[in-house]
């Protein structure tokens, strides 16, 4: 096992990888309950979606661990599943099989882009300053997700964002998770992030945040598997409806753009904490990561789980010591087990992961010092990406703002020659994406 995973060589061990895998899983486990809730609005059966979510995440995370040997986990993407749900209700006539067909088409196209080298080539064409900015922006975004899950920050009609109610149980649990995580980190306790989550889960019991499981064991429901090839009431398969409908193909393009750059940002974020980001800001073994991620997209559609993609919460496991694909394998196994014990895992409140996600955001902020803020061509696009990712609540939108700004500033400052050809392609693609999304 050591020869394959090289845990000792990377300063890790099987025990450390197990702990990191569990940390990542707990930080992601909310998707087991949340994905079915989102997709049920489009008519997808909840029991079937729980099974699809667990198996989609589990299978692809294990494959990621084996194929890339990096601590990256995958699951049904938030935002992506909302796009699928909206498309199903507004464009597919409520036929969720067609909605999953959109995901299948998107995944196949993005896989072809990886196999022909275009996806990695675009990543390589991104200026180093923007790569650092993307990491910082995602760090803030991750922390924002954690604070939002706990209700420490909340939506407000007058100010967009506001401080939540400090007396709310979720707010208190979120604060406890942050304090506990900081204390464990300060004392250099192994598994600090995982312990912070556990303390928060326990503290949520008397506060009513950590609920009582509605049962323990549940049999998987595989009826959503093969969704794109299942027919509607008129006998038309979902995939056939997508191919024959231009509007659904446009939706597949929009989904692809979001998936394409979300993964890029996530890989960079996890690579930073997992120590496989080189001095030029390039992610080591990126091709294998992109291949698995691209396969995960169409597998998610095939299983009826929406698009499965790399999760930025993987950075919590990497920050907790995950250095190899072994942590991904452990994480994937936890997901598959949960297909049988979903009622138990579903009681872990989102507020309990707040401390881990805030700490990951803190670690990723260090990238901001690598940006030359005195250079307009570096500073302005970097700032727009850093601000855009959390403020638009979308990694791909924030990245797109930075890309387009880089082209504009380069033209304004007479540095057009510094723009690599694929940066032009990516910026134009983002402009189209913003227009049709």
Automatic annotation (TrEMBL):
GO CC annotation, single: plasma membrane
Transmembrane feature ranges: 20-38, 44-67, 72-91, 97-118, 130-154, 166-187, 194-216, 236-256, 333-362, 382-409, 421-436
Primary localization class, coarse: membrane
Lineage: Bacteria, Bacillati, Actinomycetota, Coriobacteriia, Coriobacteriales
Keyword field: Membrane, Transmembrane, Transmembrane helix, Transport
Signal peptide interval: none
InterPro entries, per database record: Azg-like (IPR045018), NCS2 (IPR006043)
Record-stated family: Belongs to the nucleobase:cation symporter-2 (NCS2) (TC 2.A.40) family. Azg-like subfamily.
Compartments it resides in: Endomembrane system
GO molecular function: purine nucleobase transmembrane transporter activity
Membrane topology: Multi-pass membrane protein
Statement: the UniProt record of this protein carries the keyword Iron-sulfur: no
Domain of life: Bacteria
Protein name (record): MFS transporter, AGZA family, xanthine/uracil permease
């Amino acid at each position: 096992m050591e020869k394959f995973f090289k845990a000792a060589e990377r300063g890790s061990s099987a025990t450390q990888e197990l702990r990191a895998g569990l940390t990542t899983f707990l930080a992601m486990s909310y998707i087991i309950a949340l994905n079915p809730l989102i997709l049920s609005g489009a008519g997808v059966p909840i029991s079937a979606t729980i099974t699809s979510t667990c198996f989609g995440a589990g299978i692809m995370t294990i494959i990621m661990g084996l194929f890339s040997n990096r601590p990256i986990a995958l699951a049904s993407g938030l935002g992506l599943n909302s796009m699928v749900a909206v498309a199903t209700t507004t464009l597919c006539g409520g036929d969720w099989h067609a909605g999953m067909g959109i995901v299948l088409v998107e995944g196949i196209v993005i896989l072809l882009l990886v196999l022909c080298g275009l996806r990695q080539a675009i990543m390589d064409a991104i200026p180093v300053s923007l790569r650092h900015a993307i990491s910082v922006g995602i760090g803030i975004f991750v922390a924002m997700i954690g604070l939002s899950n706990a209700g420490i920050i909340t939506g407000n009609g007058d100010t967009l964002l506001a401080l939540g109610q400090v007396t709310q149980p979720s707010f208190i649990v979120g604060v406890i998770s942050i304090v506990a995580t900081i204390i464990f980190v300060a004392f250099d306790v192994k598994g600090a992030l995982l312990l912070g989550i556990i303390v928060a889960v326990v503290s949520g019991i008397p506060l009513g945040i950590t609920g009582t499981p509605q049962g323990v064991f549940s049999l998987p429901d595989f009826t959503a598997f093969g969704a794109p090839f299942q027919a509607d009431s008129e006998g038309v398969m979902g995939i056939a409806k997508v191919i024959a409908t231009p509007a659904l193909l446009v939706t597949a393009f929009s989904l692809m753009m979001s998936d394409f750059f979300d993964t890029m940002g996530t890989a960079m974020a996890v690579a930073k904490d997992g120590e496989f980001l080189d001095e030029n800001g390039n992610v080591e073994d990126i091709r294998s990561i992109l291949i698995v991620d691209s396969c995960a997209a169409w597998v998610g559609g095939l299983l009826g789980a929406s698009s499965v993609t790399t999760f930025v919460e993987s950075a919590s496991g990497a920050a907790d010591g995950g250095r190899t694909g072994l942590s991904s394998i452990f994480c994937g196994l936890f997901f598959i087990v949960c297909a049988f014990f979903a009622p138990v895992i579903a009681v872990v409140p989102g507020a309990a992961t707040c401390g881990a996600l805030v700490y990951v955001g803190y670690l990723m902020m260090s990238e901001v010092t690598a940006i030359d803020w005195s250079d307009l061509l570096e500073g302005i696009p970097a700032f727009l990406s850093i601000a855009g990712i959390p403020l638009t609540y979308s990694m791909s939108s924030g990245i797109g703002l930075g890309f387009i700004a880089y082209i504009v500033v380069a033209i304004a400052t007479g540095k057009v020659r510094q723009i690599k050809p694929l940066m032009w392609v990516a910026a134009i693609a983002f402009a189209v994406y913003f227009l049709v999304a």
